[in-house]
């Protein structure tokens, strides 16, 4: 069974207090560790749900190894990479880490909305009633093979009247709640935990990658009116939908920017490193007028250095890349339509992640999804190095925001005893944190 470190509830940052937070983004193409100081914002300057300003004091970054599509495939290589990156961040911050907040992309990430109701008998709603109704949701949502990462109450109802934010103190006969539950396969997360324990690190909290990306790139009005955030990663593409300010849906597909690189390498018979260079410098998913005339030098794989490089038209590169991008966008659109989320997300999509900076991607996304599209960059974090200010670092930036917004989640408080003889958090999400309301 998972250790208690995996199941611990992240302690929300206290208003008016400065605290340190360490986050670790384990991706398929890069691993990034950031240590930041969260300082309270000045009176009247605090954003909704963002009570603190993040100031980065330690940063470590390196290419990923031993991880594929968010899943640990080689424990030795993954351990070496994480040790190296965390060590880099520790040296620049001048401190030693014991625990980190870690993102989760692996294990067929998915989400469902569960509803439950309890009787009030005409009495006022108290904290105990809220805990009862959330426990009732938990009874329905728990499955032995999946682990719950987030359980987010997205709306309460009293006697069928929906849209209630905080029911405490109200009177009625029946209290209902809708909870968005984000979960992942338990075995994939156990391997993640195992690697971090080998690095002598405890998991302070887990956050789903699409949730983190949304926290860092979306503005308040978007999250309230309805928006979907697509994070184009190296080997996975994740999507999150926000409505009424809450995360209501999260999903991931195992196709990302690295698959475009492999397509180019296979079609043009060049090395993977050369294919990555071609994609970065010349790649576009939107054809241009001069593409047939623009010739790009390529070095066929296995060719000696004294051989003259070959040439292909830029249009050939576009024709290789565009079908893969359309495949990713179509898969996301179809999955969202199947779950009814295309209506929930309104008329807006935000693109982020390293592969989102591809030329022409917003235009292709606009046509495929039939929605307004913009490119999102991480906001609200100071002190990041210049290289880490792009969309590729949206997830790690969102993980710094998470301690400020985690107070409303339903999960197990630190040090609490198991309610039953079952396996704690991953079989029971746990008690409702008293300070949540």
UniProtKB/TrEMBL annotation:
Annotated Pfam families: FtsA, SHS2_FTSA
Domain SHS2: 21-217
InterPro entries given in the database record: ATPase_NBD (IPR043129), Cell_div_FtsA (IPR020823), FtsA/MreB (IPR050696), SHS2_FtsA (IPR003494)
Keywords: Cell cycle, Cell division, Cell membrane, Membrane
Protein's cellular compartments: Cell membrane
Oxidoreductase listed as a keyword: no
Protein name: Cell division protein FtsA
Role description: Cell division protein that is involved in the assembly of the Z ring. May serve as a membrane anchor for the Z ring.
Entry GO CC: cell division site; cytoplasmic side of plasma membrane
Any one biological process term the GO annotation gives: FtsZ-dependent cytokinesis
Gene3D superfamilies in alphabetical order: 3.30.1490.110, 3.30.420.40
Organism: Devosia litorisediminis
Membrane topology: Peripheral membrane protein
The family this protein is said to belong to: Belongs to the FtsA/MreB family.
Superkingdom, taxonomy of origin: Bacteria
Subunit note: Self-interacts. Interacts with FtsZ.
């Amino acid at each position: 069974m998972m250790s208690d470190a995996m199941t611990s509830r992240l302690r929300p940052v206290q208003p008016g207090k400065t605290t340190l937070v360490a986050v670790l983004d384990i991706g398929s193409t890069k691993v990034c560790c950031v240590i930041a100081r969260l300082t309270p914002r000045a009176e009247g300057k605090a954003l909704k749900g963002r009570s603190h300003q993040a100031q980065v004091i330690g940063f470590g970054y390196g290419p990923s190894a031993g991880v594929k599509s968010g899943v640990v495939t080689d424990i030795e290589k993954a351990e070496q990479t994480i040790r190296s990156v965390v060590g880099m961040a520790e040296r620049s911050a001048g401190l030693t880490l014991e625990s980190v907040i870690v993102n989760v992309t692996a294990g067929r990430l998915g989400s469902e909305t569960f509803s439950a109701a309890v009787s009030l008998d005409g009495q006022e709603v108290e904290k105990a009633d809220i805990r009862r109704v959330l426990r009732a949701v938990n009874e329905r949502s728990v499955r032995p093979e999946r682990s719950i990462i987030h359980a987010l109450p997205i709306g309460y109802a009293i006697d069928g009247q929906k849209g209630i934010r905080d029911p405490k103190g109200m009177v009625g006969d029946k209290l209902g709640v809708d909870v968005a539950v984000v979960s992942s396969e338990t075995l994939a997360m156990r391997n993640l935990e195992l690697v971090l324990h080998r690095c002598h690190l405890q998991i302070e909290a887990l956050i789903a990658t699409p949730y983190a990306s949304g926290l860092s790139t979306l503005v308040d009005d978007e999250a309230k009116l309805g928006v979907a955030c697509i994070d184009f990663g190296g080997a996975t593409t994740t999507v999150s939908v926000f409505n009424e300010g809450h995360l209501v849906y999260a999903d991931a597909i195992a196709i990302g920017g690295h698959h475009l690189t492999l397509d180019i390498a296979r079609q043009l018979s060049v090395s993977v490193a050369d294919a990555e260079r071609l994609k970065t410098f010349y790649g576009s998913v939107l054809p241009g007028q001069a593409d047939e005339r623009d010739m790009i030098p390529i070095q066929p794989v296995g060719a000696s250095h004294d051989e003259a490089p070959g040439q292909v038209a830029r249009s050939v590169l576009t024709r290789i890349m565009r079908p893969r991008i359309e495949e990713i966008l179509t898969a996301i659109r179809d999955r969202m339509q199947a779950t009814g989320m295309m209506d929930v997300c309104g008329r807006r999509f935000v693109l982020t992640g390293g592969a989102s900076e591809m030329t022409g991607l917003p235009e292709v996304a606009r046509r495929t999804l039939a929605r307004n599209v913009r490119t999102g960059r991480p906001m609200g974090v100071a002190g990041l190095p210049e290289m880490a200010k792009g969309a590729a670092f949206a997830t790690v930036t969102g993980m710094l925001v998470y301690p400020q917004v985690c107070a409303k989640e339903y999960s197990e408080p630190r040090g609490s005893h198991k309610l039953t003889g079952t396996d704690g958090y991953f079989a029971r999400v746990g008690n409702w944190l008293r300070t949540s309301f």
